[in-house]
Amino acid sequence: VETPVGVVDLARTRANARRAVEVLADAGVAWRPHVKTHKSREIARLQLEAGAQGLAVATPREAEVMASVTSDLLLAYPPVGETKLARLMSIPHEVDLTVALDSPEALEGVARASRQAGRTTGVLVEMDVGMERVGLGSVDAVADLAGRVVGTDGVSYEGIMFYPGHIRSHRSEQAEALDRLSERLDGVVDGLTNRGLGPRVVSGGSTPTLAGSHRLPALTEVRAGTAIFHDREQVALGAAGWDDLAYTVLATVVSTAVPNQAVVDAGSKALAAEERGGDGYGVLLDRREVRISRVSEEHGILDLTDTDWSPRIGERIRIVPNHVCVSVNLQDRLLLLEEDGAGRLAPVDARGRVAPGEGP
Ligand SMILES: Cc1ncc(COP(=O)(O)O)c(C=O)c1O
User: Fold this and answer.
1) Tens digits of per-residue pLDDT, 124-157?
2) Which residue has the least CA distance to atom 7 on ligand 1?
3) Ligand 1 center to residue 255 CA distance, Å?
4) Is the C-beta atom of 59 inside 6 A of ligand 1?
5) CA 163 to centroid of ligand 1, rounded, Å
6) Residue 293 and residue 44: Cα distance in Å, rounded?
7) Fewer CB within a 10 Å sphere, N or C end of the chain?
8) Pairing outcome for strands 247-255 and 221-222
9) Would you give the DSSP letter of residue 127?
10) Other beta carbons within 10 Å of 178
11) Which H or E run contains 158?
12) Residue 5 dihedral angles phi and psi, to the nearest 5°
């Protein structure tokens, strides 16, 4: 296979899926993995076979592609804009479609499009729990919007959603933040219940907080996505061990001309340009002492100062990226590797913006 290419270790991927389902089952919560991490039908099927209950998506294309794999889809992103709404509505009616939103404008758009399409779309009202990205901040604001959902034709009120993306401390240091979050969630659920708006669904979760899900009894489902492959950041946060890493970028050494470094053919267009606090762009799977210290678009610079390894031109190496989701999004296809070494290429089906089959 030509490099650079994203490589998926299927045995580790299956083990990661099983572990997510088990950890969440122990907490009494369902797993609705976010597919943004892999964007692949085949990996989505693997997650559902492992026990995931439905899938979460962010884009119309992810929704269109994943509608062929599950009949239970959550668009965990505010659906705004006529063309996006039209695409969502053309998803087969057998697919149970729910969307998350935080404004009357988004609600009106979804409701209008749903009525026109003759379908009912589920709605989760999104609340902000500290990330300050999207979501309403107060119980009153959440309840006002939930009340509007109940009074609007074309949509059904299903509950609330949040994303705890602000909790990025090490797993061993999250208890206090999770307990605060739990109090907050309980307050919102109680406030809604007192107003006759008790949520059937409380959708939350992330990979860094996955193992702490039992601390949030209000949860009904967790949308952890990165947990299917993990990455350098999740290892640093204690959410994964080195042996859980299921995705690497296979690259070839193309130059050793400059002392103390080697250059590979995976740069920012294969690994992504996400640096981790001055600690480079990734690290070698089999030689953790070697970091990718710099990237150009097609060049990755390996820092050789801390290793006795002398790479040869043409030698192949596997890089653990800092953030797997953005690296997968840069691949045309993935090399899926079985334990016995058998490999096959699979498309990154849900990548990109255009509808499947649509021209430029
Ligand atoms: C809305 C939403 N839900 C779920 C996830 C999945 O979280 P993680 O990447 O920590 O698995 C994300 C990640 O960005 C997200 O934005």
Assistant:
1) 999 999 999 999 999 999 999 999 999 999 999 9
2) 206
3) 37
4) no
5) 7
6) 33
7) C
8) unpaired
9) B
10) 17
11) strand 155-161
12) -150, 145
* Contact call for residues 320 and 284 (beta carbons, < 8 A): yes
Nearest CA to ligand 1 atom 9: 226
Gap from CA of 141 to ligand 1 centroid (Å): 23
Diameter of the chain measured on Cα atoms: 70
Is the pLDDT reported for residue 179 higher than 90?
yes
What is the DSSP pairing of strand 201-204 with strand 221-222?
Answer: parallel
The answer to whether residues 11 and 339 touch, using CB atoms and an 8 Å cutoff, is yes
Segment 226-254 shows an average pLDDT of 98
DSSP class per residue in 36-71: GGT--HHHHHHHHHHT--SEEESSHHHHHHHTTT-S
Q: Which atom of ligand 1 is nearest to the CA of 208?
A: 10
- Nearest by Cα to 187 from 149, 224, 220, 160: 160
Write down the pTM of the prediction: 0.97
Residues 79-138 have pLDDT tens digits of 999 999 999 999 999 999 999 999 999 999 999 999 999 999 999 999 999 999 999 999
Taking CA atoms only, the protein residue closest to ligand 1 atom 2 is 163
